[in-house]
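User: Is it possible to get a 3D structure for a protein together with its bound compound? The compound here is 1,6-di-O-phosphono-beta-D-fructofuranose. I've pasted both below.
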Amino acid sequence: MNVSPLQKARYEYSPKLPGMLRNGIADICVKEGEATQSVADQDKISALFPNTYGKKEITFQKGQNTSAAKKQVVGVILSGGQAPGGHNVVCGLYDALKATDKDNVLYGFKGGPSGLLEDDFIVMEDDYIDQYRNTGGFDIIGSGRTKLETEEQFAIAAEVCKKHGITAIVIIGGDDSNTNAAVLAEYMAAHNTGVQVIGCPKTIDGDLKNEDIEASFGFDTATKTYSELIGNIERDCNSSKKYWHFIKVMGRSASHVALECALETQANVCLISEEVAEKKMSLSQIADQIADSVEVRAAKGWNFGVVIIPEGVVEFVPEFSVLIGEINELLAGEKAAAFNALENWDAKYAFIEKGLTKESMEVFAILPQAIQQQLFLDRDPHGNVQVSLIESEKLFSAMVGAKLAERKAAGTYNGKYNAMHHFFGYEGRCACPSNFDADYCYSLGYNAFMLIQYGYTGYLSKVSNLSAPAEEWVAGGMPITKMMNMARRHGEDKPVIRKALVELDGAPFKYFEAHRKEWAENTCFTFPGAIQYFGPSSVCDLTTRTLALEKGE
Ligand code: FBP
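Assistant: Yes, that's possible. Here is the predicted structure of the complex:
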């Protein structure tokens, strides 16, 4: 493998562990806290998890290791979208496992949860794992989106574990994957398989967090990567002074990524999907909000700017959701064939006009034609509109263009408007992890092994106090059931970990809200620059603005 000088240097980096895990395996003991309860629906969740519900929160501390000696054979799975630092979770797990007993074994199941079901794995060895230390990506074993959720799958998983003498499974994933980890843990306990299950909180989207989990890993690096790029674009804006850049950033549903990038770069406008939903904003109102910034800046001679758009925003616009629902209905079943047989767009447009309600037709009519066609052409296997494919950066730039044309006609705007479009998503998911993510992930993996060694199951590896230096981080574990409530999924009530959306009364949004007018009307850009790996801790170990604000810093 060809290795770049930076990668070579990163191999040498020793991730920082929380102080309490630094003294060697023999010196880590457990402190048990209070018994836990689920955040809501206690009766239902406790009935569904009779073997794993209500367990105690635990923290590790310095003291004699009292765990029972036992050969550990652990299987690890990477689940869902890539997030920087995943390799370090595996490395931390491996190092703790080998430091405890060199005969312990780590299996890496390949390609996500399906690797466990298909018994497709590699056995981790030093030479192999060393190539992945402090690197981005999930290529060490690959990832996948197969959900481990049915009894049938659990039975297969139990068989595979029995075959290899596996004592524990570590699932590295987001809210869904960790919900499934809890269900799998319960199954394994109920069937006396002796297999423990531990989860680790991953996702660049930042939406797996709650009063126990301060951050999911990958969010730090991904947002720093996007913010670097946005800052570079802002510099370009300042230099050429001729474009409005519409930048969509990843985050399937929640707007944490967009908000963090706005806090880092002080872009002129940033949409927050949760606010759009709360205020029931229409597409036209959103376009007006952006056009206001364009107009005010044009009056100052600044025909340039930056708009950040969260990936999922259109689903949060109430009128747009209604439109999508009607389109899905309009083309349900056999009606799709009739629509597809129509010979040209005019004929299709007439069909649509007849089928949609007046209100939805009004929304449809203001969309640029390319977006209108996209809604009808790109459909998933069930025939539904693929909302995630909608190029909302182009949608809003076109709508703003139309607003500005109206304002020009009315004499309130006299600027020049040229729009450029970007989507930053995959660019950040496999970036070389920041020191924060390298340290945090390694700690999560190391800590996951300590939970296994002490016999816990159905726990999420928890490392907290994250805005302090790593020395002061607190390592431990939290029963996953504590984070659960009941929610409607595919027409059924299911136990789930609640997805954390941006809280409009939370400190990060409040800070943004207090400054956004100034950022919209003036040029307050900040340029975070590239992630730094070597240098003063004040630069290299910086956490996100979101975390700092949430911690009141
Ligand atoms: P996870 O929730 O699995 O971490 O994935 C997050 C994400 O990166 C979203 O931001 C994005 O919408 C989605 O994955 C893209 O998924 P895919 O990799 O399947 O295209």
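The mean pLDDT is 95. The chain has two domains: 35-218+433-489, 219-429+506-550.
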